[in-house]
Amino acid sequence: MDSGFLLLQLLNGLQFAMLLFLLAVGLSVVLGMMNFINLAHGTLYMVGAFVGFAAAERAGSFWAALVAGPPAAAALGAVFYAGLLRRMQQAGAMKQVLVTFGLIFVGIDTVRLIWGDYEQTLPAPSVLAGSVHILGQVYPAYRLFVIALGLMLALILHLGLERTRLGAAVRAGVDDRVMAASLGLDIERAFFAVFCLGCALAGLAGVVAAPVLEIYPGMDMAILIPTLIVVVVGGPGRLAGAFLGALLIGMAETFGAVLVPDFSGFMIYAVMALALLLRPQGLLPARHSS
Amino acid sequence: MISTYRAAAVAALAASLAAGPALAEEPIKIGLVLPFSAGPYVPLANEIADSLAMAIADAGGAVAGRRIEVLREDTTHKPDVAQAKAKKLVFEDKVDMLVGPVGSNELTALLDFANQSKTPLLIPNAGDNEATGERCSPWVLRTSFSNDQIVREMGPWMVKHGYKTAALIAFDYAAGHQQMDGFKRGFTQAGGTIVNEQYPPFGPISDFGPYLAKIKEVKPAAVFTFFAGPPATALVKQFTEFGLKDQIKLAASGWLISPLNLPGEGDAAVGVLGILNYVPAIDAPENKAFQAEFQEKYHRIASEFAAQGYDTGKLIFAALQSLGGKTADKAALVKALHSVTVKGTRGALRIDPKTNNIIQDIYIYEARKNGDRVDFAILDKIPAVQDPPNGCNL
What we know:
The complex is a heterodimer.
Chain A: H1 3-34, H2 41-59, H3 62-88, H4 93-115, E1 131-134, E2 137-140, H5 141-163, H6 165-175, H7 177-182, H8 187-213, H9 219-234, H10 239-259, H11 264-278
Antiparallel strand pairs in A: 1-2
Helix pairs in contact in A: 1-5, 1-8, 1-9, 1-10, 2-3, 2-4, 2-8, 2-9, 3-8, 5-6, 6-8, 9-10, 9-11, 10-11
Chain B: H1 2-23, E1 28-34, H2 42-59, E2 62-63, E3 66-74, H3 79-92, E4 97-99, H4 107-117, E5 121-123, E6 140-142, H5 147-151, H6 154-160, E7 165-170, H7 174-189, E8 193-198, H8 209-218, E9 222-226, H9 230-241, E10 249-253, H10 262-265, E11 273-276, H11 285-298, H12 304-322, H13 330-339, E12 341-344, E13 347-351, E14 358-370, E15 373-385
Parallel strand pairs in B: 1-3, 1-4, 4-5, 5-6, 7-8, 7-9, 9-10, 10-11
Antiparallel strand pairs in B: 2-3, 11-14, 12-13, 13-14, 14-15
Helix pairs in contact in B: 2-12, 3-4, 6-7, 12-13
């Protein structure tokens, strides 16, 4: 295995990890905060991609997609929260899984109704469309952008969580919801804000992924399982958990594909099984005292 | 005298009334069993169905006074549903023949049913070698292609044109392996060397970064691949993005650069070699007329799937004509399908009674830039490619 190959794979793994991170963050926070399993999280990813694509087509620019996709996903998320999630918070895991799983299909068919069955393409913006020479290797500029964006957002989210009042409220709510509420913190509002942010990030992931993974009805199903595995492995409820989980799964998928091709489809599940055996609460679990 | 005359007149009148209903003939029914609403082949199903109906209409829509009805049933991309719908079409709707499936996942279900119920089944797409090989059936005919038939001429052609080493990549499923094996056989027999083979798991995540990095490492002269749909677009684009295009020739079975994918691939498709049973650029009057009609109706270039659908309709019509529209004897219908030769969109076509697979020309072509579009230049045509029996005993 030469160094050029290694470098390329590291970059590939990092890029996929950043995509997974953007998706996992929202899912992880919702699971950790509200104990709510939202399988339809992927639908927000798909909606973000499609709405972004429509905006980009209209405006003739990729950046329009970045501007339109996340808010559309956040809006859909808000509707979902108000209409369904709030009512189902105590409903138990089984019901949540069934309902949100059903929503996946509603989402897919709605998207098909509006945009048809054919795949759509959202080309990378021309400023990022070329390739870059990194340490002797040719690498797509756009994928470097994905890596940079993911790292930057991870940093922003971390700072937001540690340095802002909202962040403090969220951390308190995750640690001990009852106590935090009794101290007068408006947990409900904090959670809602964070939920919508998570949805926006999913929508952003959809737009960002589109030039690499293509846009089509059902794209949410494709990314759902790796995302769930990231959340489970990393530990639900914590940003660092989602980041670490994403790195692990992203690298496992990327390296597994070429180093152990016969087992590559199985790699991420193997990683998950191993992680759960060793640390069933996740690598970096949130500290629940309730 | 007068009363006898009147009696005869009444008798004649009664007889003509009795003969009346027999003039309103039962329509000939073709049952399409395709995934119209779910799964990755929905666009293909619609192309095939629309073109088949177009062919029937173009030919006149009726044979010997019997109107031809095309019924559609949706398999939703599931084999058990496919079989249930096939049963409905045959036993309730009383169709004279079935057409389907698109993908190989539904193939076994339909093949088994057609064989058991002795209903003619025409396969308008699914290319699994065994359907006209080891598992051939006297009731199942294929108007599209077999995987091996499409690819086996590419290996020798590439060696002849100077590509002596190749890396292969395709999804890890039956069709992927059959196509890579078909290419490999011809390529190595002609003196080429396969330096690497990769079979990513068959799934919708089409990030080929890791695999392309590996290909870069082994430095082949060419890459041969088979992908269709969104993964094909992804591979073509990423092949350029990772800088492989300048150093390595990309060749594939033609679905990689299908008209359905070209818009998404853009300039990344330029220079890619394809081998397939149909190219929109085929310079024959039948194809030109077909493309003109299709483009006017649907505002896009007709793909190979539409061509297959159209040719299937043409073959069916020719067979029905040769029978004078009589469809009660299904064995005779199959015989008629064996006996006709049509000039389809792809060239001369007939079904080989030894395998029930179609005999057709295979085209090798290259995508090239034409103004602001990408289109195809046909480099070679291998006429009348016929599958050997391959374990079929018909």
